[in-house]
Amino acid sequence: MSISLVSSQYASFLVAVLFLLCSPIIKSSFADDQRAIYLVLMEGEPVAFRQSNATPFEEGKTLDPNSLASKAHAKRLVESHDLLLQSTLKIGTYNKIYSYKHIVNGFAIHTTSSQAKILESARGVKLVEKDRGAKLMTTYSPQYLGLPAGVWSQEGGYRNAGEGIVIGVIDTGINPMHPSFAYDPTNPFMSNLSRFSGACETGPRFDVSACNGKIVSARYFSAGAQAVTPLNSSIDFLSPFDAVGHGSHVASTAAGNSMVPVIMNGFFYGFASGMAPRARIAVYKAIFPSVGTVADVVSAIDQAIIDGVDILTLSVGPDEPPEDTITFFTVFDIFMLFARRAGVFVVQAAGNKGPSPSTVVSFSPWAVGVAACSTDRSFPGTLILGDGQRIPGVGLSGPTMGNGLLQYKLVLAKDAVKENGIFPKTPEYVEECQYPEALDPTAVQGSIVICNFSAGFANGTSTVTTIIDTARALGFAGFILVANPTYGEFIAEPIPFSVPGIMVPRLADAKIISDYYEQQIYRDQSGIGRRYSGKAAIGDGRLAHFQGQAPIVSRFSSRGPDMIDSNRNPVDVLKPDILAPGHLVWAAWSPISIFDQILTGQNYALLSGTSMATPHVSGIAALIKQFNPLWTPSMIASSISTTASKFDNRGEPIMAEGAEIDSLYPSTPFDIGAGLINPTRALDPGLVFESGFEDYINFLCSLPNVDPQTVKAMTGKLCNNSFAYPSDLNVPSITISSLHGSRFMKRTVKSVATKTETYLCSVLQPPGIAVNVTPSWFTVNPQGMQDLYIKLDVNEIKDDFSFGEIVLTGSLDNIVRVPLAILPASVS
């Protein structure tokens, strides 16, 4: 994201908080002999999917992990891991951290590179992957998405929305004292969750009472973190408690209680609610303030499946495509594949490296990748100059005394620097308001001080938090952070200021302020300001405005096309999958706020990022699962996709933010996937496209330059029914990264309606390609299936992808949309 304002710490949360996952190694070279964590996948069925005549595996379900047979099998797997290590590696050269045995057979060890190299060639070892570390990546959202009058009303109102569904949140933990996670004895849960078997692990700031029925399970995973670095007991709490805030924010967005008042710095912003306020939350803390490892993250995934979650929320993802292997064959993606095989709906952040193309970090078709957009709510700030000019800006703060009617002396920080002060004459001291000792108290006390966005902000050493501290120490009436021509405009998000303040990120507006100021100041012959006549006031920036074009794809949201490798070669999978609100999202926070001093002591935060968009989809998936309990994950994913909207609140195609401030362009499926999620329509999509585990195996087998033995090694399955092309996977989209001449393909739809319906097929043709669908119309009974045969013909070569859409319009008002993203490479 092209952001370089505010504190460098807070900026990481404004763009959302993604984990930097490791690059996989299949035949790797080890350059040194340093100790590190290595993830190892083994041959042999894990507990959840073991095959026997007595207990054949059923798609979408796992075997009971608590049965005697399962426990015996788990014990054998652990023993086999230990035996392999003992017989292969030197004693004292390794430390086993985890045995993975439920959805994947493998383990994690802390060892040297040379020992890991030996392990690669050991019998039964499928993959050795170095763990390079893991690191961190609503008051209005329910209304914007139409939940109160839509899905919630169909499920008995907010007091029942999500009842009986468990959402697993793998993140930084949870703040159990937050009202978003409180248990309401006047509205007891109706479901006993007999199928769920989580546990409540206790520790610092987290006792057994924290698992109160709303929070049904809470665990933490620290073995990997503890192996690589000494943890700081003052912040790295060995408990599910969230010292960061991010995990609490994600959990409350997905399933926080409804009608929770949001109060910050004494101001009431409205009532917050999660998407599925009656869903239960299972917490899996796998990231600590000091460190995070992939070993801990995938162990959390494994445990979540054992416990029996319905939905898995991963505001996590690889920060870059993996080196030396296919994106779908990382340990992280393999764990997600087997979670999906177990019948769990997996939602993953698409990433925050937009707006450049091929930056998505959600690669696999078995996980739903979520892009981020704005809503029509904004928090505009206003600076009122003494001559009546009103300058727009950003800042979640109260007004100067007098509510904008009283005017205060306007002082440029440069003009208020002590003439004989002993301090470095660097921008941080001279113009960025970072050091109170550099400013003359008599000049700035009771004044509105203009601070410049200069070198310190550009390199991340200066922060808005420090401006606030300076303002408090010297008694500013308020402050202005203005754009600097030397460093250009900056991107500003509303930040809660505890003193009156405003950010003015546009150069044109900064010039108006500068021109007015210079007209009102008297300078002596040396250019030093001696008399300040300029006046200004800061208006209230906390009042929400509901107007303007929305949604708009957020600048930071990662874009497609999807990639098959680190060389960014495209692959025939549409990513992102769906668009959801991820800009300016109010949700729960942790008052400790280790990474963000500006939010210390606060119970709420207004954040932006695909990490914020992801739990919107998780919560909505919980509502769909509640309404349609027998639906598989692919059916839920299909319903979300085919019912999404490509249009904004003006009826125009959704726009996307470009690299420059205020730049917009018409979005494509590589920006929005299928479009903005529509929860009400997703409950009853009419038709769905289904894909199961065997289909994903066939997809992997059809990838270019993939050895079937690699697929067998990674998944345990043979390539018996490989697709002709990866694009043949039965998903509700068609992506072809290089179409030569003609191609035939098939899609199969299943009716989930309660009545027989007739559908008419039409096509919005992609430029350069003729698309024909047969049959042109069909009638399908409830639970009936219909094959659609699609012929694609290139009639004009293009240098880039062309976009279109297949639309199936039903006689009972169901509309099924299938996006097309195709690059016509040659006519024949």
Automatic annotation (TrEMBL):
Alphabetical UniProt keywords: Glycoprotein, Hydrolase, Protease, Serine protease, Signal
GO CC term (a single one): extracellular region
Active site residues of this protein: D171, H246, S611
Signal peptide (UniProt feature, chain positions): 1-28
Domain Peptidase S8/S53 residue range list: 162-648
A Pfam family it matches: Inhibitor_I9
Keyword rRNA-binding in record: no
Gene3D superfamilies registered for this protein in UniProt: 2.60.40.2310, 3.50.30.30, Peptidase S8 propeptide/proteinase inhibitor I9, Peptidase S8/S53 domain
Subcellular location: Secreted
Record-annotated Inhibitor I9 domain positions: 73-136
Molecular function via GO: serine-type endopeptidase activity
Record GO biological process: proteolysis
SUPFAM superfamilies xrefs: Subtilisin-like
Entries under PROSITE patterns matching the protein: SUBTILASE, SUBTILASE_ASP, SUBTILASE_HIS, SUBTILASE_SER
Keyword Glycoprotein set for record: yes
All residue ranges annotated as the Subtilisin-like protease fibronectin type-III domain in the record: 728-822
Family annotation (PANTHER family): PROPROTEIN CONVERTASE SUBTILISIN/KEXIN
Family to which this protein belongs: Belongs to the peptidase S8 family.
Protein name (database record): Subtilisin-like protease SBT2.4
Organism: Papaver atlanticum
Record lineage: Eukaryota, Viridiplantae, Streptophyta, Embryophyta, Tracheophyta
